[in-house]
Design goal:
Layout: H1 9-25, E1 29-40, E2 44-55, E3 59-70, E4 86-93, H2 100-107, E5 111-113, E6 119-121, E7 126-129, E8 137-139, E9 178-184, E10 190-195, E11 204-209, E12 217-221
Antiparallel strand pairs: 1-2, 2-3, 3-4, 5-6, 6-7, 7-8, 9-10, 10-11, 11-12
Length: 223
């Protein structure tokens, strides 16, 4: 004998109210909180923007984006965390932050204004633009020869046993590269010193480019 389940009008009303309360909370949303321009030059601008993201089952909280705007980026499209005419240079979590100004003080050191057209950004990878954020070229520590890298143990899903690209695991946390003495010239020369706990049997590298960052060479420093 089958049992029939029925709900009273009051129960149905409560169910409908609960559904209308729950489903909006599960809808993805992104809301701009505040922003601050921290470099306003004659040819390009840099700003940091805070957003609140609600990505159900993934992330809820504050995030930030660092963006650049110039005549070279004027056609860059708009999306939920990028205004039209700006390009994103960096991003990260910002839970617990109080303002965009506060985050700028933390992040500013990663954005090296070299001159009115040249910008260098540093993180795991160093990026350089000589045309006001129109194009960037990178120096990536994961491209170094294996004999210079002291790798960390990686999960089984990482290549070569698995398929995931886990190269940057070697440069996480206190192993992140430290970039110093960044220098550029309008003729396209770039040089810097980089060190990392991941480097094997060496103290640091002096890295150079003479073609606007398209190709790179390095010298090992052992002392």
């Amino acid at each position: 004998m089958k049992k029939s389940f029925s709900r009273s009008p009051l129960q149905l009303a409560i169910t409908i109210i609960l559904i209308t309360m729950i489903f909006p909370a599960c809808k993805p949303s992104t809301k701009k909180i505040d922003e601050v321009i921290f470099y306003n030059g004659p040819n390009y601008k840099l700003k940091l923007v805070r957003y609140h993201e609600n990505l159900p089952f993934h992330y809820v909280g504050e995030v930030f984006r660092v963006l650049c705007s110039s005549a070279q980026t004027a056609n860059s499209p708009e999306h939920k965390t990028q205004d039209r005419g700006w390009v994103t240079l960096g991003n990260g979590g910002a839970i617990g932050s109080k303002s965009a100004d506060e985050l700028v003080e933390r992040e500013r050191a990663n954005y090296h204004v070299q001159d009115d057209l040249t910008l260098v950004t540093t993180g795991k990878v160093l990026r350089v633009s000589f045309n006001a954020c129109g194009t960037f070229h990178n120096w990536d520590p994961t491209t170094l020869p294996a004999n210079l890298i002291d790798p960390v143990e990686k999960p089984s899903y990482c290549a070569p046993a698995g398929t995931a690209d886990c190269r940057y695991y070697d440069f996480e946390g206190d192993r992140e590269p430290i970039y110093e003495d960044v220098q550029t010239s309008p003729e396209g020369k770039v040089s810097f010193k980089v060190s990392s706990k991941t480097f094997k049997d060496i103290k640091a590298l002096i890295v150079n480019s003479s073609d606007f960052g398209k190709t790179w060479s390095y010298t090992v420093i052992n002392q």
